[in-house]
Amino acid sequence: MSVNGKKVLHIDRNNYYGGETASITPLEELYHRFNVIGPSEPMGRGREWNVDLIPKKWNIDLIPTFLMANGQLVKLLLYTEVTRYIDFKVVDESYVYKAERIHKVPCTEEEAMVSDLMGIFEKRRFRKFLLYVMNFNEHDAKTHQDIDPKKVTMREVYRRFDLGPDVMAFTGHALALYRTDDYLDMPCLETINRIKLYYESLLKYSKSPYLYPLYGLGELPQGFARLSALYGGIYMLNKPVDEIVMEKGLVVGVRSEGEIAHCKKLICDPSYVPDQVKKIGRVIRVICILSHPIRNTNECTSCQIIIPQTQVNRKSDIYVCMVSCAHCVASDGKYVAIISTTVETENPDKEIQPALDLLEPIDQKFVTIADQYIPKHDGTKNQIFISRSYDATTHFETTCDDIKDIFQRMTGATLDFKDMLNVDTKMDKEDTE
Fold it and tell me: Transmembrane segments in this chain: where (predicted)?
């Protein structure tokens, strides 16, 4: 908005950038927030830690979440040149859970042919399917192979390539990154594009399709704050919001400490307008401090593990992401792993047990269960535009969809990250190695 010439005032009740999307430092602050007695052994210097925040009241957090190398957020960062303020590192590897073991998601055709995720005949069929996806062009009917992408379901596409349940689970959840199996009975176009995005991102750096900012996700809001300031945006930290001022059903300002900042439009998260949002579920998230890399991950310093719902008799996936000192978020020899999933029962702790088993032994864990909210209205009548709560996924694609939706509701224009630029022309590999 600032870049486009709008006058922007950003008010934050916290004394740091990013609100609940900040990264906590020093480590002692994390223990303090959860009322946990400090570590029994030295954990390095406290300021070597930058643990992405999990709040205790509102689900407006930004847990360690990875960026797809060719995804929407990276394109936005490059388009706005926020990357001048942030350095990234490629996440080492991506894994998927099957039969109580984790398996590396194949990064190359050679890896696919030796992967134990599939039998020998399914590997050939999967390769044929993957070639179809990579050659697919939404606007070129010749690449569709008599499949109408807007009518034929993904379940039917799998059937045409004779792919079994295990391959379907691996493809839909580890590549297309769906949280549930609802996508199977929807038109296949979005799923095909998701799989293309995964492999296009993977081709950038070969190791995995994911990036993570050095010093944690708190660098993202700080980068956008600096950019906004260059174009006249004003940030006010440690400023409480006492009241959202309305006149004739329209927002006209925000009252803080006896003063009113006047405005014509307001963007906020659910915590500022609890009467204008509704609860749609809950998410459990657990920060785990480790003194070792996760078992069976080739001693990698960062990774993602997806536990598909079908492997643990659930309706939604469980996500695990792990970062370390390699990303300047922990002391040397220490690791930060985060588990997240949608709550489905009255015993959330039991739901994440398969993920906890993968991480043992755990030095310390911090658990939070937060409600998920969505706005009750689109904001066009009162000009208050409310973001959705973050979901359980470990990538930013759903968040970017929310940003595009808010932008369109506010301006009536479409914000299309795909058309912003060709990432290859601006991403400097030296910043991500």
Answer: none
